[in-house]
Amino acid sequence: MNADRNQNGFDVARLMRRDLRDMENYAVPFRRGPYKLDSNESPFGLPDALRRRLIAWLEDEKNEDLHLYPDGANTRLRGALAELWGVAPENVTCGVGSDQLIDGICRVFLEPGDGVVVLKPTFGMYAVSARLNHGKVREVPLRDGDVAEIVRAASDPRVKVVFLCSPNNPTGQSLTEGEICSVLSDVRCLVVVDEAYGEFARPTMIPRIRDYPNMIVLRTFSKAFGLAGARVGYAVAAAEAIDALDRAKPPFNLPTLSQLLATWAIEEWQEYSVRVAHLNERREELYRELEKIPWLEVSRSDANFLLVRSERDVGALLEENGIFVRRYPGADRVTCTRISVGTAEQNGKVVEVLCGAEPR
Predict the structure, then answer these.
(1) Which of 38, 60, 141, 235 is most buried by its number of CB atoms within 10 A?
(2) Do residues 135 and 281 share a domain?
(3) Residue 324: which CATH number?
(4) What is the CB neighbour count within 10 angstroms for residue 353?
């Protein structure tokens, strides 16, 4: 950038919003390998029935229509989701993953300077989207069973949105229905309940949208459904909130193939429920094995990942052995590492490396 500025006098940074010049983006490295456990993806590919259906659709010249723009209203997918959850299609909208919906919520509801309350720690895109849309982020430490601090932070009239991730990423802990309802009842702002990992931990808050018009529930096909590459998320809420979100949605936001895969995946829910049960079993097995390592602290989780804490850099140790994980800064010399639950072979490699590490 400096060379360009010296040559023609143009400085991109000068034109940027001042509040974004020093902001770090939510960067995720693109990595592939047999031990990729850094993004909470499913270790399973498409179910056989869904793969066959996709191949048949591509081979049928009467159906394959990728030369045309997709259905911008996501009509078929919204209908399938509405039927799945027992709501009306007007209570559902779809986005490019949950990320587009999170950004849409911030676009629609935030005026410059409005507040957004998030847990600490939690999914980083809430804060990024809030700041990109001129919001001010307020972090609230999450303590077991105590949502009073969340309510206090949200009582400020400038706070427009509260993001509650349940199960929370990266801690894996869930808020109870009672705790979420307590927040919903005691605040006068929008409460977004992000259930990206909801299939691994029930119940869902979706049936309660009739009771709480100030709630939006987010879900995704990237985790339990194993369609991270298709990038499909959805929101369920009162029709008025969905109508507001649709105003910020770009046309043709979801590709045709993404809409089809998600719709077909719903029809294969029985297969996916078996996979969820399997991954939950693998999670508990991995938890028990890691708990035996004396220099590790392992947190219980309701999702498809575990968070471990140690004075040693567990993430660096695993990555030295070809295992990709997510590393987080800790406090008081403690490092935090999030490990996605994989296959028995992948989990076994994690245990082998950590058990074989010399204690300090």
Answers:
(1) 235
(2) no
(3) 3.90.1150.10
(4) 18
230 plus 316 within the same structural domain: no
Domain that holds residue 101: 67-267
Q: How many domains does the chain fold into?
A: 2
Q: Is residue 60 part of a domain?
A: no
199 secondary structure, DSSP code? G
d(C-alpha 346, C-alpha 348), whole Å? 5
Contacts of 100 (CB under 8 A, 6+ apart): 233, 249, 253
Q: Where are the beta strands (DSSP E) in the chain?
A: 92-95, 115-120, 136-141, 159-165, 190-194, 215-220, 233-237, 297-298, 305-310, 326-328, 335-340
Asked whether residue 214 falls in the same domain as residue 317, the answer is no
pLDDT in tens, 74-101: 999 999 999 999 999 999 999 999 999 9
231 and 280, same domain (yes or no): no
- Residue 176's CB is within 10 A of a number of other CB atoms, namely 12
pLDDT in tens, 110-162: 999 999 999 999 999 999 999 999 999 999 997 777 899 999 999 999 999 99
- With 0-12 / 13-18 / 19 or more C-beta atoms within 10 angstroms meaning exposed / middle / buried, residue 13 is exposed
Please give the Cα distance from 222 to 105 (Å, whole number).
Answer: 20
Does residue 204 share a domain with residue 135?
A: yes
CA nearest to 114, candidates 162, 163, 160, 164 = 160
CA 236, CA 245: separation in Å to the nearest integer?
A: 11
Q: Which residues contact 52 (CB under 8 A, 6 or more apart)?
A: none
Domain boundary among 243, 267, 291: 267
User: Is the entire prediction scored with pTM above 0.85?
Assistant: yes
Looking at residue 133, its pLDDT comes to 97
191 and 249, same domain (yes or no): yes
Chain segment 250-276, per-residue pLDDT in tens: 999 999 999 999 999 999 999 999 999
CATH of the domain at 232: 3.40.640.10
Q: Which 3-state string (H, E, C) describes 4-71?
A: HHHHHCCCHHHHCCHHHCCCCCCCCCCCCCCCECCCCCCCCCCCHHHHHHHHHHHHCCCCCCCCCCCC
Query: Are the beta carbons of 135 and 165 closer than 8 angstroms?
Result: no
Q: Give the end of a domain, one of 206, 233, 267.
A: 267
Torsion sign across C-alpha atoms 305, 281, 223, 81: negative
